[in-house]
Structure formats: C-alpha cells, structure tokens
Design brief:
The complex is a heterodimer of chains A (176) and B (105). Chain A is built from seven helices and one strand. By secondary structure, chain A is mostly helical. The relative contact order of chain B is 0.12. Classes of the chains: A mainly alpha (176), B mainly alpha (105).
C-alpha cells in the first residue's frame, strides 16, 4: 500500500518537474509546479508529517503559486524563446548537474543504517510539533515573523509605481 | 530488500536528489525570468523532502520545524522576488534573461 502510494506520487513529482522544464509557456510551468508541490504534500503525509503536508498545500500550492500565476498573468508573459545560453552554462553547468546527481546518488546508495518507511510508523502530530516550536524555538519563530513583515514592506516598496517614466507602469499599479 | 516492509528511506532521498538536479537543470535551460524563479522553488522543495525524510528516520521533530521555517522564508522570498520581477519588467519590458544582463539601465 505504502509502496504503491509512493510510486504513484513520486511519479507525479518527477513528471511534473520534467514537464516544468519542457513547457515553453510560463503558465504551464506554474501549473506543473503545483502538481509537484501537491504530490510532495502526499509524500510528507506518508512520512508522518501531517502538519507539514497541510502547510505545503496551503502555503506552497496555495499562496506562493497563486502569487506566481498572478504575476505571470499580470506581466502577460508569452512563450519563451529558447536560446542556448552562455558558453559557461553549457560547458560547466550541464556536466556539473550530472556530477551532482551522480555524487548524491552514490552517497545515498552507500549510506548504511537507513531504515524504511511504513504505514504503521505513526505520525508526528501538530501537538508534538507546536510543543517544541513554542517552548524551545520561540525566539526564531518571532524573528521569522519580523522577517515576513520586512519582506512584505520590501515587496510593496519594490512593486510600487516608481518614477513615471516607464512603459508598463499602469498595469503594475492596477495589480498591486 | 523486502518490499512488504515498506519503502526504503534511500528511495525518498533519491527522489529528493533527482528533483534538486531537475531544479538546477531548469535554472540553466529556462530563458524566462519567472520560470527560472520557479526552478529555485523546485530546489527548495527537494531539500524540504530530504529534511522530512531524515526527520522521520531519526524521529527528530526539529527537522520538521526546520522545514516549517524554510517554508516561511520561501514565502518571503517569493514575495520579494516577484516584486523585483515586476520592477525589472517595468524597466525593461521583457522577461527574457538574455536581455536582462545589466544592473543599471
């Protein structure tokens, strides 16, 4: 049962990620990224992280991807034209990606003492999570809220209509 | 490996490594600013999967809390990054990364 669920949703993940690379229109890439994130939420649930599965759906597949699709539609992004990119990206980047994957796979396959995930492993409840979060890690939690506040202020300041000498300023002000 | 025992942890880690590599690949081959940014989100998600897997392996709640923090920082990063993309589009009227190669106009 666990194996079947894992194979199905790992397949969705990989298929969505590959589709993200193959699509030329940004809105199609955004929709495949939503598929990846929702399947990851199911995988979190299989690993017993119920709170993170909910947060993944709400924060990532919900909030962040709505922001992405919103910007894609706001900027009226069309098809991308494929170019080959720089020589550096071609000659160093692609071998480096293969090397990263090869090294990671070798290390992972040689790791000893890793167990397996079963349905009967039990879940980490939100209760356990919040107990640690609000007793031991209260200060980082509050600092993160300040970070979010600063990020919101920065986003508003950056996206606000600036000097009036720009070609597409009208659409930007209407959106934000 | 006995598959009736469940799924080996290493499969989750391999999936995470593959997703990360696909994210790096997307970062290199995509030519649209927004899609390049989406590839970064894909890499963040791949690393989150590793964190949750190891948190399950070692029965450590703090691994999951770290993923929670990564999600919050990713939300802040997405808000600021997309605001920068809007500002860049306003200044250049293009989203192609090949034409956005100067810091100043």
């Amino acid at each position: 049962m666990h194996l079947i669920l894992f194979l199905i949703f790992a397949g969705f993940c990989l298929g969505g990620a590959i589709n993200l690379l193959l699509q030329t229109h940004p809105i199609n890439s955004a929709l495949s990224l939503i598929v990846v994130m929702t399947s990851l939420a199911v995988l979190y649930l299989l690993l017993g992280a119920e709170f993170l599965a909910a947060a993944q759906v709400i924060v990532y597949a919900g909030a962040i991807m709505v922001l992405f699709t919103f910007v894609v539609m706001l900027l009226n992004a069309g098809r991308e034209e494929r170019t080959l990119g720089s020589h550096v990206a071609r000659s160093i980047g692609f071998p480096a990606v293969v090397a990263i994957l090869a090294v990671l796979a070798t290390v992972i396959l040689h790791l000893q003492g890793l167990g397996s995930v079963q349905m009967s492993d039990g879940i980490t409840t939100t209760d356990d999570l919040s107990r640690v979060l609000f007793h031991e890690l209260l200060l980082p939690f509050e600092v993160t809220s300040i970070l979010i506040l600063i990020a919101i202020l920065g986003a508003v300041a950056l996206a606000r209509h600036g000097h009036g000498d720009t070609p597409n300023g009208r659409e930007g002000t209407a959106g934000k | 490996m006995n598959f009736s025992q469940g799924v080996p942890i290493s499969w989750y880690l391999l999936l995470s490594a593959t997703l990360f590599s696909l994210g790096v690949l997307g970062f290199l081959i995509k030519r649209n600013l927004i899609t390049v940014f989406m590839s970064i989100e894909l890499m963040l998600n791949a690393v989150n999967l590793s964190f949750v897997t190891f948190a399950h392996q070692w029965h450590a709640v703090k691994g999951q809390i770290f993923v929670f923090f990564v999600m919050m920082v990713a939300a802040a990063e997405a808000a600021v990054g997309l605001a920068i993309i809007i500002a860049v589009f306003r200044a250049r009227a293009t989203l192609a990364v090949d034409r956005i190669d100067l810091m100043k106009l």
